[in-house]
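Hey, I'm writing a tutorial for new members on how sequence and structure tokens pair up, and I'd like a real worked example in the thread rather than a made-up one. If someone can provide the structure for the chain below, I'll link this post from the tutorial.
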Amino acid sequence: MATLKQFEANRRNAQKSNGPKTPEGKAAISMNALRHGLRARTVVLPGENREEFNQLCDDLQVEWNPQSRTEHFYLEQMAVSQWKLTRMEVGEAAIFEDAAASTTKIPLLDRLWQAECRLERSYARAQRELERLQNSRREPDQPPEEPAPQPAAPDPQPAPASTYTAAHADQSQPHFRDNLVTPSGPCPE
């Protein structure tokens, strides 16, 4: 336990040092607490290529062509989510490279996969909203058009009641679920 004299000396010394003063010093310590970068305020971390991120943003810009600030917001959200998903894939690969430690890092992998799912949902949500905004911009409110009347077709001849049964109907058209395969085989009726 520190004495009162040591405590006071520590407090006086702390008042003299308030961290780096120069921009270079501030930049040097800005990432001191960074561990994985998934919650970083900076999208592109040291060691990552800023040009690759800019290329990703440019590609999304060309693909989606946002027109409003809201569309830009969703496009940025998509770019950040995609960038962080790529970062996660690199981190996951690094965990699996060390095969001996990979079994002890299962809780870390679980958190990584949860964060990956959140980012995938974030990307999908932003994409859906961007598509919705762009569709509403392209199609101003118009009353729905009524379909053109179809020419009347002659009535088909119904099968005689005595020969047509429900068993025949089931045999003529297989149900779509008959082709579905589940772990226990075809879906039950």
